[in-house]
Amino acid sequence: MSARRHILIVEDDADLRATLVEQIEADGGFTADAAADACEAQARLADADMRYAAILLDIGLPDADGRDLCATLRRAGHRMPIIMLTGSHAEADVVRGLDAGANDYVAKPFRITELLARVRAQLRVFDNSEDAVFLVGPYVFRPSARLLVEPARNRKVRLTDKECAILKFLYRAGAKSVARQTLLHEVWGYSSAVSTHTLETHVYRLRQKIERESAQPRLLVTDSGGYRLDALPMAQAA
Ligand code: CA
Fold first, then answer.
1. For the chain, where are the alpha helices, taking DSSP H only?
2. Mean pLDDT to the nearest integer, 127-139
3. How far is the CA of 89 from the centre of ligand 1 (A)?
4. Distance from Cα 60 to the centre of ligand 1, integer Å
5. Please, what sign has the CA dihedral across residues 19, 20, 21, 24?
6. CATH 1.10.10.10 domain span(s) along the chain
7. Could you give the CA distance from residue 130 to residue 141 in angstroms, rounded to a whole number?
8. Are 137 and 3 in contact (CB under 8 A)?
9. How far is the CA of 132 from the centre of ligand 1 (A)?
10. 8-64 pLDDT per residue, tens
11. What spacing in Å lies between the alpha carbon of 220 and ligand 1's midpoint?
12. CATH 3.40.50.360 fits domain 134-237
């Protein structure tokens, strides 16, 4: 199962909303939820089980201005990329959207390929930022703090630099298995003389920290000569 990232679409136009959900999910890298107004968007964001990687936010909503909602979300501590869907190119619209804390904007009508390219670009920036948070099995993974938090058990797992780098690279690879040699080079650098044995030792320690039973890994699995992260939430995988 791949680590599909969740996108929240806030758009009151029912046809556009349905089309966006369908096209974003068809891309394969994302799952999408939709909200028809600001109130529903807030309710979805308050649901702690559903962490959104990014938000697509229409400016003209029936119960709020999307830019005001954006500012409210920022004040509430939501850090994920927010891309405004604007009905006009008018500069004031755009500037005020970005002032409100939006990361980017796309003017309607837009191509889904362009929208997804913007989403990916923002996610790349975000993933390397201090604010990045990923869902890995039952954990909330904060690479910048080298920390995994397991909310259900109120447990924290501290990672070493290398463990953090291994997890981050596997997360980025999604459902794909990463060859040991590739992972070794990515984490230790191409010029390093470190052998795959060192990598295996780090993976062994990492599994002891994150797996329920480290002898039977379900999260960091060995797969076709390499490793793969099965980032599906544990509740569903059980
Ligand atoms: Ca609208």
1. 14-26, 38-46, 66-75, 91-99, 112-127, 161-173, 180-188, 196-210, 234-237
2. 84
3. 15
4. 4
5. positive
6. 134-237
7. 12
8. no
9. 29
10. 999 999 999 999 999 999 988 899 999 999 999 999 998 866 679 999 999 999 999
11. 42
12. no
For the stretch 209-220, pLDDT in tens is: 999 998 899 999
Q: Tell whether the model's pLDDT for residue 65 goes beyond 80.
A: yes
Return the SS3 of 57: strand
The pTM for the full model equals 0.70
75-96 pLDDT per residue, tens = 888 889 999 998 866 666 777 7
Quote the ligand 1 centre to 10 CA distance (angstroms). 9
Which one is predicted more confidently, 127 or 56? 56
- The alpha carbon of 58 and the centre of ligand 1 are apart by a number of angstroms equal to 6
Confidence band for 97, pLDDT divided at 50, 70 and 90: confident
Cα(184) to centroid of ligand 1, in Å? 48
Contact 88, 109 (CB under 8 A): no
Distance 50 CA to ligand 1 centre (A): 24
- The CATH superfamily of 5-127 is Response regulator (3.40.50.2300)
64 Cα–ligand 1 center, Å:
10
Q: Note the residue count of the chain.
A: 238
CA 15 to centroid of ligand 1, rounded, Å: 11
**CATH 3.40.50.2300 in the chain, residues?**
5-127
